[in-house]
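Pinned message: reference record for Crp/Fnr family transcriptional regulator
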Amino acid sequence: MNREAVMNAFFTALNTYYSLEKDTMLAFEKLVRIREIPAGTNYLSADEVPVFISYIYKGLFSYYFQYENGDTVIKKFFPENTFVASTSALIMHDKSRYTIDALEDSIVVEYSFAAFNHLLQKHHDLALFWINYLGKHWVVEKEHQEIEHKYLPAKERYRHFVAASPALAARLQLQQIASFLGITPTQLSRIRKTL
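Predicted structure (tokens):
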């Protein structure tokens, strides 16, 4: 693994939300560690208090809720160049309701949320990164997804998902896509046959 390439990708991703000062990036780099996460690893369990946020340099994660009867609802997938965490639990300093699993062999840049919060107090540009990140992913995208999931028929939800994320759809198993769309694998199989 090339640490320099991983860190360059990490800071490029951060800078897409807000351009960071050099001293901010140097301070931030001291907080991070690079980890390899094998496929099938449970990265965060439900009822665990999360500690870290991770930038995904390589790999794929699912973020899901599991009911007592075993039914699983995948809320979100996190592929390369995204940040994975149980964000609401981090902010509330509470146990996560969701589980995060590595679906593929992955490489992440991991950092402590507490240390990150400390840096936010000192670096205004990093605070603006965080505001822009939350606004884009936990307000705008979430709002759009909620509308689709509540009002569009299953066939349209599938079409939208594949159109918006064809590369991601190709990496997922049928049951993972079905769980994300809120339908059964059988329903999804029927939908695919009609398209």
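Pinned by admin. Summary line: The chain has a mean pLDDT of 94.
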